[in-house]
Amino acid sequence: xxxxxxxxxxxxxxxxxxxxxxxxxxxxxxxxxxxxxxxxxxxxxxxxxxxxxxxxxxxxxxxxxxxxxxxxxxxxxxxxxxxxxxxxxxxxxxxxxxxxxxxxxxxxxxxxxxxxxxxxxxxxxxxxxxxxxxxxxxxxxxxxxxxxxxxxxxxxxxxxxxxxxxxxxxxxxxxxxxxxxxxxxxxxxxxxxxxxxxxxxxxxxxxxxxxxxxxxxxxxxxxxxxxxxxxxxxxxxxxxxxxxxxxxxxxxxxxxxxxxxxxxxxxxxxxxxxxxxxxxxxxxxxxxxxxxxxxxxxxxxxxxxxxxxxxxxxxxxxxxxxxxxxxxxxxxxxxxxxxxxxxxxxxxxxxxxxxxxxxxxxxxxxxxxxxxxxxxxxxxxxxxxxxxxxxxxxxxxxxxxxxxxxxxxxxxxxxxxxxxxxxxxxxxxxxxxxxxxxxxxxxxxxxxxxxxxxxxxxxxxxxxxxxxxxxxxxxxxxxxxxxxxxxxxxxxxxxxxxxxxxxxxxxxxxxxxxxxxxxxxxxxxxxxxxxxxxxxxxxxxxxxxxxxxxxxxxxxxxxxxxxxxxxxxxxxxxxxxxxxxxxxxxxxxxxxxxxxxxxxxxxxxxxxxxxxxxxxxxxxxxxxxxxxxxxxxxxxxxxxxxxxxxxxxxxxxxxxxxxxxxxxxxxxxxxxxxxxxxxxxxxxxxxxxxxxxxxxxxxxxxxxxxxxxxxxxxxxxxxx
Length: 720
Fold this sequence. Notes:
The protein is an alpha/beta fold. 22% of the residues lie in helices and 20% in strands. The strands form 8 sheets. An 8-stranded parallel beta barrel has the order 12-13-16-17-20-21-22-23. A 6-stranded antiparallel β-sheet has the order 24-25-26-31-28-29, with helices on one face. It has a 5-stranded antiparallel β-sheet with strand order 4-3-7-11-10, with no helix packed on it. A hairpin with a 2-residue loop joins β5 and β6 (61-67). It is elongated and about 90 Å long.
């Protein structure tokens, strides 16, 4: 079969390979290339069957249209231009290049020296003439049609959002009820056992670790490891092929549709700060060969070298208009075509750098904020990178929310018993106002977490004093050394019943603190099951039982506690307000928030500055600005990291009689019994009290959760 470009002046505005119904339009960006060739391959990608120079250049867009070429066509590019590394140019037409806009990627990369633009063993100024096509991945033309009938975007308010951070492969590999052939895949992720578990737990959104096409680093393959987490993106538009049970990207769309049927939003962890090509000594796979000087930030002093604020060897140059367009086009594609509900931006400070400095009013943030498609979805920043001035917690503009590592560290330190933590704990409970209460940002700006994929799991936080990353092959040098963890008497798993009971109570305390705090809570997948990584706090390369979620904790009482803790939060609007609580009285004379000492008096300067104080009491009332009904919602919380003590509950908003509705000193944790002052607060516990006579709202939350599960059973399972 012969291929040729149409002589018709057929120009589409889209970049990438766009199927028109009768043919495919190919378009790619390169500002410094002298010629770009389209290469077509056999269906399996092994044989190059055509090489055609793109006939049209308009500005820096190279394009052409081929009639009769449709979905399933395998393709790549070769770019001709100067090979002048000292000037930042690394064109080498011997290297087949993946289309940055490829919607599907065929195959797995086979590491070979031919993938590099220079000769391995010599410096990067040399030139390698070997063909890389047999070893690299290719793009596949797609048909965008999919039956989305009955699917609707959820757009749940931030005040109603509870995030569950999960790994598609890790969450499904050991679940006994997920069909074996679906484990590790998008279809396994949305299978009945997984969705049922998420509904039982009560989370409202899954935040998936990177699912855009990524590579396994060469050094990991040589050590018989894999890039498990996925933070080495090569294809910003393509789902990761190893997560598909077949060869159709519709599996990803099916996953999204089924989650939406269950009322669960889907958030993607995305990596636009760097690519898998690494430093100037990395391979030539896509961006480097198409236009190194445009796609990457290069050293101002020596353009031969990449500029790195990410710790991976390169930094994507989003200040370039066409690179910015690629990132925005990618985001719009995942929202508009794949129906994603939001994004968590890895090392997001890098995206806000202009002239190498972080700028919260930078062009990237401005571009997203003005885009009607993107401004309405959930946007979460990891507010740091490894460059100078990269730590920017609280520095991002609305509508971004931010991971709050201060919440994680301070909650761990408080419950570990560190001194002087009461003021910090008070700040975290109320949404970290010092960091976020500015520029008209709300209390939901803080995404609160106890643990995440990077670091100790919740179980390991209470089971290990030190990291144990020996399996990573880096002599335990990798990963954070300061985890604010506590093994509570034995390093790692133990048969000691007292230690295990103390660990279980501390996990209850920490999980309940998460659910009682203003902001947006995020649970790490498996924490509710007691999942451990054996003390490995950097399992980025552990695609095995170390990194996978252990489902043996399904019968653990802690899972039942977590389900009730989530329901408790849902039942109390006072715990999830959009406004920061100021401590001032409202117009109706109601107190929004007040801090109390164990004797019932208000906290004073002496108490706030008492490094020996280990207990904190706080009264919370739902703001009149946030009232959803005429019902009131008042609650008194006590966080006690010290010894048993008595606490005098105050009279507030006309209430002087209280019922205990929560006590983490008990395994079940949730109760309803009348109390008389002073009340007994046991050591190492969280207690909550509601005014007597107010109906126990936990029952309402349970009914709502049950109704949600019934809806899933009725509608979500129609599509298998």
